[in-house]
Amino acid sequence: MDRVNPATGETLEPVEGHSDEEVDDALARANTAFESWRDRSMIERRELLADAADVLRGNKREYAEIMTREMGKPISGAISEVEKCAWVCDYYAETAGEQLADEALSSASEASAFVSYEPLGPILAVMPWNYPFWQVFRFAAPHLTAGNVGLLKHASNVPECAMAIADVFERAGYPEDVFQSLLIGSDQVEAILEDDRLRAATLTGSEYAGRAVAETAGHELKKTVLELGGSDPFVVLDDADLDAAAATGAGARTLNSGQSCIAAKRFIVHEDVYDEFLDKFTDEMDALTIGDPTDEDTDIGPQAREDLMEDLHDQVERTLDEGASLELGGEPMDREGYYYPPTVLTDVPQDAAAACEETFGPVAPVFRVSDAEEAIELANDVDLGLGASVWTEDLERGERVARRFEAGCCFVNELVKSDPRVPFGGIKDSGYGRELAGHGIREFVNKKTIWVQSPEGE
C-alpha cells in the first residue's frame, strides 16, 4: 500500500498488503476465536476493554503521531481522538453488562419469557481515513464486548493506523484473533462479504461504498450498519447568540481540517441577523491557524490526499461559476502539501455544487432565509440526513425546529458530534442503523426470545 505524507507530499514507506490466501486464513482464525470468545464472561470482556483504554492513554502520543503522518490530522486533534477512543472503551467497560442484560417480558402466568442478547460472530468493519482511530473504536469497543470478533478493512492510505489499532488490543491482552486488521484493497471486500464465516458488516464512508457493501451483504442476507456522508445544516435564527454561533460554527466547519461527515456544511441564517453573523463568522474562519500538523498551535492541516483537495477546489469553482460570491479563501495554498484555506461562499444558488454536494473540506456556503420555516425547508432539501444544528435563545423553539430536521442527530446550540452516551447515525442517503450508546451495542446481536414454560400441573 503506497502512502504519502499530505503535509509535505513526500512518499512514505509502503506497507505490504494481505493476499487472498492470507485473508482466507484470517477468516478461519476469526471463526475459531469466536467459539471461545463468545463464552468469555461479560466481566472478563469488560476488564479487557478497560485495559485497552489504559493502553490508549499510555501511548496516545505514539498513536497520534501515526495519524498525523499518514493523513495530516493536526497533532492536538489526533491526541484528542486517541483520548476519545479511551473514553468509548471506558463507557462500554462500565455499561455493557447492563445494556446486554436479559430483558424480562410479559408472558403467560405459567411461564417466564425474556430476550437474550447474544453475539453473531465475525463482523467486518470497513472504515475511513478521516478519523482513523475513533471510527474503528466506536465499532470495536461495543461489538467485541458483546462477544463478537472483528475484522478491520481500513482505508488504504492509513495502513499504519490499522496495524497500530490491532496493537492496542494485543497490548491490552485480548485473545489472539479476536481483532484482526486486514491490509486489503476495496476489490477484496466483496469476497469477504460473501464468505459464510462472516456474519455481518458495518461501513463508514461514501454513499457509493455503502451501496456496494449493502448490495452484496443484502444478497447474502447479512446485517449491515451504514454511516455515510452528510451535508449538515447549521441554522442560525434571529434570536441566536451570534458570537457563540459564529465561533462554534467556524470550529464545526473546520474540525479535522473540514474532513468530517458531521461537519457543519451549510450555514442557513435568518435575514435579520445575516450580515452580522456573516461578518463574525468570516472573521472566525480567517483567524484560524493553517500550518504544519505536527505543531500544537495548528488549527487546520492539509487535506488528506491531493485528489481530495482538487475535488474540493473543483466544487468551489463550479459554485462560483454558478453565481456564488467569494468572501474568503477559494484557492489551494501555494506551499508544500495539500493545503486548502478556510473558504466562505455567499449568494449560493440552491442547485449549485456547494449546496447540493457534500464538501469534504473547510468550505462554508452561507444562505439567507426569511424565517424559521424557510430555514427548515432548506435544511431538509438534500438527499443526506446525518446531523443538524439550530441556534436560538428560545430552547423550546430550538427543540421544535430540531424535531423537524430530517436527520439522525440534531443539536440545539451545539455542534453535531458523536458521544458514546447517545446513539449516532443518519437517515436518507446518510445510511441506517446506529452506533454508540445502548442502541449501538445491540445492532450486532441475536435478540433471542426465550420462553420457559412450567410443566403441566406444576
Automatic annotation (TrEMBL):
<keyword id="KW-0560">Oxidoreductase</keyword>
<dbReference type="Pfam" id="PF00171">
    <property type="entry name" value="Aldedh"/>
</dbReference>
<dbReference type="InterPro" id="IPR016163">
    <property type="entry name" value="Ald_DH_C"/>
</dbReference>
<comment type="similarity">
    <text>Belongs to the aldehyde dehydrogenase family.</text>
</comment>
<dbReference type="InterPro" id="IPR015590">
    <property type="entry name" value="Aldehyde_DH_dom"/>
</dbReference>
<protein>
    <submittedName>
        <fullName>Aldehyde dehydrogenase</fullName>
    </submittedName>
</protein>
<dbReference type="GO" id="GO:0004777">
    <property type="term" value="F:succinate-semialdehyde dehydrogenase (NAD+) activity"/>
</dbReference>
<dbReference type="GO" id="GO:0004030">
    <property type="term" value="F:aldehyde dehydrogenase [NAD(P)+] activity"/>
</dbReference>
<keyword id="KW-0521">NADP</keyword>
<dbReference type="InterPro" id="IPR016161">
    <property type="entry name" value="Ald_DH/histidinol_DH"/>
</dbReference>
<dbReference type="InterPro" id="IPR016162">
    <property type="entry name" value="Ald_DH_N"/>
</dbReference>
<feature type="domain" description="Aldehyde dehydrogenase">
    <location>
        <begin position="2"/>
        <end position="450"/>
    </location>
</feature>
<feature type="region of interest" description="Disordered">
    <location>
        <begin position="1"/>
        <end position="21"/>
    </location>
</feature>
<dbReference type="InterPro" id="IPR044148">
    <property type="entry name" value="ALDH_GabD1-like"/>
</dbReference>
<dbReference type="InterPro" id="IPR047110">
    <property type="entry name" value="GABD/Sad-like"/>
</dbReference>
